[in-house]
Amino acid sequence: MATVRLILGDQLNPEHSWFRRVDPAVVYVLMEVRSETDYVVHHAQKVIAIFAGMRRLADQLGAAGHRVRYFRIGDADNRQAFAANLRTVFAEVGAKRFEYQEPDEWRLDEALRAFAADTALPGGMVASEHFLDGRGGVAAHFQKDAKRWLMESYYRRMRVRTKLLLEPDGSPLGGEWNYDKENRKPWKGTPPPPKPWDVRHDHRALWAEIAAAGVRTMGSPSAEAFPWPRDRAEALAQLAAFIERGLPDFGDYEDAMHTSSDRLFHSRLSFALNVKLLAPREVADAAAEAHRRDPARYPLAATEGFVRQIIGWREYIRGVYWAKMPGYAAANGLGHTLSLPAWFWTGAVKMNCLRHAVGQSLDTAYAHHIQRLMVIGSFCLTAGIDPAEVEKWYLGVYIDAFQWVELPNVIGMSQHADGGFLASKPYCCAASYVSKMSNYCGGCPYDPKDRTGPLACPLNALYWDFWLRHQDRFLNNPRVGMAVRQAAQMPPAEQAAIRRKAAELRAGIEEL
Ligand code: FAD
Ligand code: DLZ
Ligand code: SF4
């Protein structure tokens, strides 16, 4: 008679309180299953990274004396779904109790709740012990029925709650809560980007197993020199290396993009965080402690900017997810219906900014925030692509993409499909922003200064056409009103030329 405890592929925290005591009456179950590999086409590196992490945790638990039942993707007795495999294990061990950690995805939350009820075994859901706030913490912070929420207000509460970067009297360190305006420099080659700190694993055998099982994936597996951590020790080393080498310049160049460096000074910690190899508190503490130790090397703007991403945005996004699901997934407030072009799966597009950002995503399963928001996302938004299609692509392509964090970022922040609930303005840009913040335009066949000519940068007509199409909705938005008025005040002939050009670009979207 045993207690069966399920561990999901993004619950790889070896320090969970479950594991403090070895109990021969407890069986831990991990499973590689087609129900999870196939709900979207995932990037090859994402599948490898999750399976490698699961296998490693299973080995570590086994070595510590815990009982573990592991289903590999190619095992003959693997019935390829959580419920079916759990029933196999229940019968094998004579289960008298079933427990699982709170899933971070609405679909699995529903499915496991229904499964647990159906088994009629005692037990149920326990905390994952990962996030700083509960699922309902963000909703509780805002007024019931508020039309929009503001991350900044929630973030300040989290600063007070965590006591991070505060003066002894409780006011924000340095006098300001947010130093975002200091974090918008383009990067021109100096300081040199830090030497990458990624691990290198040979995961060719694992990749062969995944391929042999017939799992459909996208992007490059990079199996021979696999750059993602598979256990907590490696994730901690990645965190230490980022603090040492990346954090000092993280703030200045947070919004910069460059063809010579995929990450510049970004941490690439999102995978380790989202599969719970790292805890958000320890990541934010490490940054705050670096600033406390050496404020000259770790400027406040860089430290605060980084801490805000972790204790502010990450928790806020999760709160929006739990408050708004399941309806959020279908939100399409701007009525966009165009299909994603095929080059999102190949990177074969002439626009250099998109070729680089999409190509890098397919090669590395990673792009940093501004590439996701202001290049790929902005293109989809201004072109008018169906947000549900955009959402599926993002959920598949990025190593860190789990629906609780991916969906609100795409539907809310990037595609403004939620009517502005999560973000107070639509994030979109024309070539002027891309050419200021990157070197992409230098290698592009299109002219960033032209709006409507044959070789005009497509982003320009799409951007101005977006404001023309949606001017009624955004005219009174203080954050974008100026751009909307500029569009509305263009001479009618220019407006007509922009609308014509944008329609042509949409019709020829596969050829851009
Ligand atoms: P850094 O720039 O080094 O930031 C540090 C950490 O802060 C990140 O690791 C992440 O945990 C957190 N963070 C930063 N911004 C956000 C944010 N907006 N929401 C939540 N956490 C944040 N992040 C994901 O983890 N998974 C996703 O699937 C995902 N999809 C996104 C889709 C779109 C359209 C956009 C605009 C953003 C998305 N993000 C997502 C947020 C952000 O882009 C990534 O967290 C970040 O690029 C990961 O790289 P990094 O670890 O180098 O981040
Ligand atoms: C994303 C993913 C993949 C590709 N495969 C598995 C798997 O085989 N087994 C598993 O337990 N989890 C997997 N995951 C993660 C889940 O699909 C899901 O996204 C998270 O558990 C939700 O928080
Ligand atoms: Fe992108 Fe336009 Fe610049 Fe080309 S010219 S890189 S399409 S912004």
Question: What would your notes on this structure say?
Answer:
This protein is α/β, with parallel strands linked by helices and 512 residues long. The protein has three domains: 2-126, Rossmann fold (3-Layer(aba) Sandwich); 137-322, Serine Threonine Protein Phosphatase 5, Tetratricopeptide repeat (Alpha Horseshoe), CATH 1.25.40; 342-511, DNA Cyclobutane Dipyrimidine Photolyase, subunit A, domain 3 (Orthogonal Bundle). The chain contains 20 helices and seven strands. It has helices at 34-37, 44-63, 82-93, 106-119, 137-141, 151-162, 204-212, 232-250, 270-274, 280-293, 300-324, 352-364, 369-383, 387-397, 403-414, 431-437, 458-469, 471-474, 481-488, 492-507, and strands spanning 2-6, 26-31, 42-43, 67-71, 95-101, 123-126, 217-218. Strands 4-2-1-5-6 form a five-stranded parallel beta sheet, sandwiched between helices. β5, α4 and β6 (123-126) form a beta-alpha-beta unit. α10 packs antiparallel against α11 (300-324). The mean pLDDT is 96. The structure holds flavin-adenine dinucleotide, ligand DLZ and iron/sulfur cluster (SF4).
Please outline what is shown here:
With 512 residues, the protein is of the alpha/beta class. It has helices at residues 34-37, 44-63, 82-93, 106-119, 137-141, 151-162, 204-212, 232-250, 270-274, 280-293, 300-324, 352-364, 369-383, 387-397, 403-414, 431-437, 458-469, 471-474, 481-488, 492-507, and strands at residues 2-6, 26-31, 42-43, 67-71, 95-101, 123-126, 217-218.
